[in-house]
Design goal:
This protein has 222 residues and is of the alpha/beta class. It has one domain: Rossmann fold. It has nine helices and five strands; from the N terminus they run βαβααβααβααβαα. It has a five-stranded parallel sheet, sandwiched between helices. The protein binds ligand Z5A. Ligand Z5A binds next to α1, α4, α6 and α8.
């Protein structure tokens, strides 16, 4: 039986990595095979492109070229990591996916939505997350968390954007969540980690019923 595909989205420091990891651990405890992955990156080729993008060396090429690089990374990640894991029945938990391109390069970067859709068609085809969590915190809270976690490390290409950019990002994610309620669930991530983790877990249980999957005999198809 094909696995389920769950993505985490949101702005800087909203807790995506934290909650993707906690959810993966909880699914594993429930007896489900899990592939925890991230974008940009998640496959050897895509990790190389991640380095190029986050170092900022591609920024002078313009937002369209950056979108092409994110797409190249995503195509490799889908082919070599996500699709094989889903085909083997694992649940894939991914820190960022197509919505990041829609929001960062599309809404904020003002690229033509038709161009963004064309990139999606060639990189992900019919693959769509079964469930997407949009973690929401005020931009200044997310930036403060990211700043604290970063310590003395220099900011990356996107962390260095202005507060206004991060506020616009939050609004773009909110609109995206409202536009696709069947797939997207917005989570107030200002609450303490255990509270947020519990909301996420309950949503997964309600929408995807992991207990039913883990109780199936190996190789069963429903
Ligand atoms: N990007 C793009 O433009 N287009 C694309 O298509 C894709 C990506 C795929 C990737 O950066 C950048 O690429 C990203 C968008 C762009 N740029 N930005 N900004 P990344 O992967 O290096 O980083 P990120 O995705 O932005 O994530 P992040 O900064 O690492 O934040 P996070 O994963 O959301 O948060 P976290 O690491 O889980 O938590 C941050 C800190 O807050 C940490 O110390 C936690 O312990 C703490 N935390 C988490 N939750 C809580 C709660 N509830 N209370 C208190 N503290 C908390």
């Amino acid at each position: 039986m094909r696995g389920r595909f769950i993505t985490f989205e949101g702005g800087e420091g909203t807790g995506k990595s934290t909650h993707a990891t906690l959810l993966a651990e909880r699914l594993k405890s429930a007896g489900i095979g899990v592939m925890l992955t991230r974008e940009p990156g998640g496959s050897p080729g895509a990790e190389v492109i991640r380095h190029v993008l986050l170092s900022g060396v591609a920024k002078p090429l313009g937002v369209e070229a950056e979108a092409l690089l994110f797409a190249a990374a995503r195509g490799d990640h889908v082919r070599n990591t996500i699709e094989p894991a889903l085909a083997q029945g694992a649940w894939v938990v991914c820190d960022r996916f197509i919505d990041s391109t829609r929001v960062y390069q599309g809404t904020l970067g003002r690229l033509d939505p038709l161009f963004i859709r064309a990139l999606e068609r060639v990189t992900v085809g019919d693959l769509k997350p079964d469930l997407t969590f949009i973690l929401d915190v005020p931009a200044e809270v997310g930036l403060a968390r990211a700043h604290k976690r970063r310590g003395s490390r220099v900011t990356d290409r996107f962390e260095a954007e202005s507060l206004a950019f991060h506020e616009a990002l939050r609004e773009a994610y909110r609109q995206l969540g409202t536009a696709e309620p069947d797939r997207c669930v917005a989570i107030d991530a200002t609450e303490a980690k255990p509270v947020v983790a519990e909301w996420i877990w309950r949503t997964v249980v309600e929408r995807l019923d992991p207990a039913r999957i883990s109780s199936l005999p190996a190789g069963a198809v429903s």
